[in-house]
Design brief:
heterodimer; A: alpha/beta; Dihydrodipicolinate Reductase, domain 2; 10 strands; B: fumarase; 6 helices; 26% helix
């Protein structure tokens, strides 16, 4: 049995959140650069140029890309053959607390969502999704999820008879209604199938999949392509002031579902997509 | 076009949706929780902790200032969440709001009635805005952390007129210009 300490976990969590706060991943910066060339709208081009300049300033001056440094979300794949020595959630929260304090990241979490809404002042608690996997390691994927885009996400329990057309309409309609609010160009994560909460989880995982990656199932890969082309016909454009680049990518994940159901969830991620992966 | 803040209503009236601006001067920073407190004061007939007459409110919640800087990253937040609170402040004399995202019809109507403008900053361009901020002070509600009300002084902060004082909406105009039918 391999033992993984609380300290190892919190150090990895802190380093992952610090690694993604000040620079976007190459897939996103490449996609923005490509959009700057292809975008036809002058206002859209100007917004994309500002986004790239912002990436440069953030990287060079060690400032967060976006002031909304997000709610901390951690996907953990825990090997069945390892022993976590201590409290896993406490270790993850300690890592988040350290990253958000040392990195001058914004603390954006309120303890109670409805009544007092008092800021917890350390950006905890973390949203943690655990998955048990074979092996004796621990793999963490983290995302700092901003809420400008999170707020524009949606879920719908479609009927099987709604089919592909129903899914397309719902996804495109969700992005269309979001308009300029989620900081376009966006990355659209779509979860299809499972149950209500599982479709939402798939949508979040899809939203942090690399831009330009394709679903391994050719039918779903084609659906991703069509959704992207349809979304980019909406005219919303960079910063929402009109243009061709409303989304940089659409990622779909799917899962088996019930004979009576066709759950579809859409999780929107802004162009300041921040996620990182590491393992012990 | 260079604009000095605070701007008066004559300056606001001359702006047109789509104008690109460089803002220099003083403005307030306030978002959700601060707005809720301000409107609660008004509802109770109490005075606001600062005057909004002729002023600008930037909807933002900056990240903490690293050592040696006046402010952390300071991009705009989604303005629509302030829609419920905005007409009351416009009626009191607020001239300009800055943020990102769509405004409600009620806010646009109130802007037209009061001769106010709504400006946009590119969402997510937060480090870029940080470099335009030359000075920053907490005005009130420090307990709200990132949602405290601040007075900031900016130089050449890039912004675009999203809704002008006649109610023209750049989001609607721009989208209509680039929306195309999907071809298989």
């Amino acid at each position: 049995m391999r033992t993984i300490s609380e300290n190892q976990i919190s150090e990895l969590v802190a380093s992952l959140f610090l690694s993604c706060a000040y620079c976007v991943t190459d897939d996103v910066s490449n996609a923005v650069e490509a959009a700057l060339i292809s975008e036809e709208s002058p206002a859209g081009k100007a917004a994309l140029a500002q986004i790239l300049e912002n990436h440069k300033i953030a990287r060079e001056q060690h400032l967060p890309i976006c002031q909304d440094t997000g709610m901390a979300v951690v996907f953990a794949k825990v090997g069945c053959g390892c022993v976590i020595d201590g409290d896993f959630a406490a270790a993850v929260n300690a890592g988040v607390r350290r990253a958000y304090s040392e990195g001058y990241l914004r603390k954006s979490v309120v303890a109670d969502p409805l009544f007092e809404r008092r800021n917890t002042k350390d950006n905890t608690p973390t949203i943690i999704h655990l998955e048990l996997v074979p092996g004796d390691g621990l793999e963490l994927t983290v995302t700092a999820k901003g809420f400008g885009s999170e707020n524009m996400s949606a879920i719908k329990m479609l009927s099987p008879s709604d089919g592909v057309g129903g899914v397309i309409d719902f996804v495109v309609d969700t992005v269309g209604k979001a308009g300029p609010n989620p900081c376009p160009p966006v990355i659209v994560g779509v979860g299809i199938g499972g149950t209500m909460e599982y479709a939402a989880l798939l949508a979040k995982q899809a939203a942090i999949r690399n831009v330009g990656s394709r679903n391994e199932d050719e039918r779903y890969a084609k659906l991703e392509d069509e959704l992207l082309r349809r979304i980019n016909c909406l005219g919303i454009g960079p910063a929402g002031t009109g243009g061709r680049t409303t989304a940089l990518g659409v990622n779909v994940l799917f899962a088996p579902t019930h004979i009576a159901g066709l759950p579809v969830a859409v999780n929107i991620c802004c162009h300041a997509a921040r996620h990182a992966k590491g393992s012990i | 076009m260079k604009i000095t803040l605070p701007m008066d209503k004559n300056t606001a009236a001359a702006l047109t949706a789509g104008d690109n601006l460089l803002l220099t001067g003083a403005l307030y920073v306030a978002r959700d929780a601060a707005h809720k407190r301000l409107i609660t004061l008004l509802d109770n007939g109490e005075p606001l902790p600062f005057s909004v007459v002729g002023e600008t409110i930037y909807y933002a919640g900056p990240s903490p200032a690293p050592a040696g800087r006046v402010i952390g990253s300071a991009g705009p937040t989604t303005s629509g969440r302030m829609d419920k609170y905005t007409p009351a402040l416009l009626d009191l004399g607020l001239v300009c709001t800055i943020g990102k995202g769509a405004r409600s019809a009620a806010v646009v109507d109130s802007m037209v009635k009061n001769g106010a403008v709504y400006l946009g900053v590119t969402g997510g361009a937060a480090a870029l805005v940080a470099n335009c901020v030359k000075r920053s002070e907490v005005v009130c509600y420090e307990d709200l952390g990132p949602e405290a009300v601040r007075r900031i002084w900016v130089k050449d902060m890039p912004a675009v007129v999203l809704v002008d004082s006649h109610g023209n909406d750049l989001y609607a105009i721009g989208r209509a210009q680039y929306e195309i039918p999907f071809v298989e």
